[in-house]
Amino acid sequence: MIPKAIIQNVVSTAQLLDRNSKLDLYNLAEIVKNSKYAPERFSALIIRIQQPIRSTALIFSNGRIVCVGTKSVKDSEIAIGHFVDMISSASSLPIRMRGFKIQISSIK
């Protein structure tokens, strides 16, 4: 009998900005709760949430968002939507999620 596959991690990506726009990650790190930005170590702003879905987002200055740590595609969609709302309320730039994609699903 073949064991049932269990999804361990869903990774999703999206684009939040138009091509010529850039996010001020220093400013976002000051405003957004549970965020960390250390550009000398890693070029993305890291945001961790526990609710509504436990997950982590990597936000790059070009507007690319990578969401990791969810257990299903639906949870990933919910989490990335929450991150988009957080960034939108903290930024003066127009934020809109485009090109949502599931990149990797780690399966046990």
Automatic annotation (TrEMBL):
<dbReference type="Pfam" id="PF00352">
    <property type="entry name" value="TBP"/>
</dbReference>
<protein>
    <submittedName>
        <fullName>Uncharacterized protein</fullName>
    </submittedName>
</protein>
<dbReference type="InterPro" id="IPR012295">
    <property type="entry name" value="TBP_dom_sf"/>
</dbReference>
<dbReference type="InterPro" id="IPR000814">
    <property type="entry name" value="TBP"/>
</dbReference>
<comment type="similarity">
    <text>Belongs to the TBP family.</text>
</comment>
<keyword id="KW-0804">Transcription</keyword>
<dbReference type="GO" id="GO:0006352">
    <property type="term" value="P:DNA-templated transcription initiation"/>
</dbReference>
<keyword id="KW-0238">DNA-binding</keyword>
<dbReference type="GO" id="GO:0003677">
    <property type="term" value="F:DNA binding"/>
</dbReference>
